Amino acid sequence: MKSLLTDLINLLFPTLCVGCDQTLHQADQFLCTKCRLALPETNDHQSPDHNESHNKFAGKVPIRYVTSYARFAKGGVMQRAIHRIKYEGNKDAATGFGRWYGAILNEHSSLADDIDLLVGVPLHKQRLRQRGYNQADQLAIGLSETMQLPARVDVLVRTEFKSSQTKKNRLERWANVETVFGVADALAVKDKHIAIVDDVLTTGATIEACAAELLQAGCREVSVITLAVTQ
């Protein structure tokens, strides 16, 4: 009876793939098999201290490891998925991607042995009210489940509401976020290796600003884990 009810609900309200909008099979979660196979994975985790993602921070702020799950391309699967996560309320997909990537990092890297705490890049409370959740926090929660690491959503705070970073160049992005972050709980990061989690690594300006605050608050090292990275 329960199975029949589930089938009826799926028929009337089908779950759609966040990458292509096609109806998902029961075995799929939020991304169909075709879209998952089409994800342009970076393999950053094979050399997290020396890769293209890591190079975005060279000479700017000391970052231990940087690893991004997939490349972000206009019109690609990852762009469509992130759009649905950020602007269409697909909170579960953010957590699911975190679990997937956490499993990959566990199997193919030793990051979980080095990192002490996962911290999402914060949203301003006004943006958080509009969206209902912070996609970076959901990614961090998903990562924490499979990497067996603690995640905190209250350590970093955004103190000012700024305009979107989407269409800004690197200098404009840095000026837009230079003073907008703070550490709410310095004891939580003191002498620890903190991994900053975000959805997309573009110029790195936002994460640089977060890393600077964490280091000033006394954390030992900062690393970066993102869902996607731009070319």
Largest sheet: 5 strands, parallel
What is the approximate shape? globular
Average of pLDDT? 88
Which range best describes the helical content: under 10%, 10-25%, 25-40%, 40-55%, 55-70% or over 70%?
40-55%
Rg? 18 Å
The side-by-side strand order for the widest beta sheet comes to 1-7-6-2-3
Fold blueprint:
Layout (H helix, E strand, L loop, with lengths): L1 H11 L20 H6 L13 H4 L10 E7 L4 H11 L3 H18 L2 H4 L2 E4 L4 H7 L3 H13 L3 E2 L3 E3 L11 H8 L3 E3 L2 H4 L3 E9 L3 H12 L4 E10 L1
Parallel strand pairs: 1-7, 2-3, 2-6, 6-7
Antiparallel strand pairs: 4-5
Helix pairs in contact: 4-5, 5-8, 9-11
Description:
This protein is of the alpha/beta class and 231 residues long. The chain is 42% helix and 16% strand. It is built from eleven helices and seven strands. The strands form two sheets. The chain has a five-stranded parallel sheet. Strands 4-5 form a two-stranded antiparallel sheet. Strand 6, helix 11 and strand 7 form a beta-alpha-beta unit. The protein is globular.
